[in-house]
Design goal:
globular; single chain; 214 residues; three-stranded parallel beta sheet; mainly alpha
Amino acid sequence: MGSDLQGRPKALRATTAFYRIIQSARRDVTPDIVLIDIGPNLGAINRAALLSSDTILMPLAADLFSLRGLRNLGPALREWQRDWQEVVAPRIPEQIEAHAGDVRPLGYVTMQPIVRVDRPLVSYQRWLERIPLVYDRCVLGNDPPSAAADNEIATIRNYRSLMPLAHDARKPMFDLRPADGAMGSTLSYVQTCRSEFEELTRKIDARLAAVATE
């Protein structure tokens, strides 16, 4: 990456675009936090988004693809940071506003598996048990990984019955109302969803505060 960006102002401006948009928003509306939601790939857009961020939170499922994603993203992210900080950042012109490239892994959130009769929970448990060590080794770069590492922030319930309603209403699951079709037990499920997401927010906020003091 470093050799691709050196001496190329247009490429640098493209790579720092996310950061400059974020800084503009901070000056205009002073948000408490800015979230960037990106897909699971290592393309140029995601690289630019990650290199514009202070922290990264990873949602994971109990499957092979999440583990492969960790094994790919962790080393790639460390390589991007190293190239950015050592090769690119020292040569960025003063007129181009850019992030320092110090992206801190915040932890991960596990998505609860959809349990089916023909696929009991034990079949997912083997994947769940591998996540902590793979995250510690591949994302944090700890080799050997620590068996006692605790980087999971929370496990998110699978709200599959609320998702179609939320898509149709074009609003978060925890904001669904009877007018959106959330009635009876479904409305109670919405309240549970709101409570659990509020708890997740508190946990993420606590983790952000801990990272800020490190």
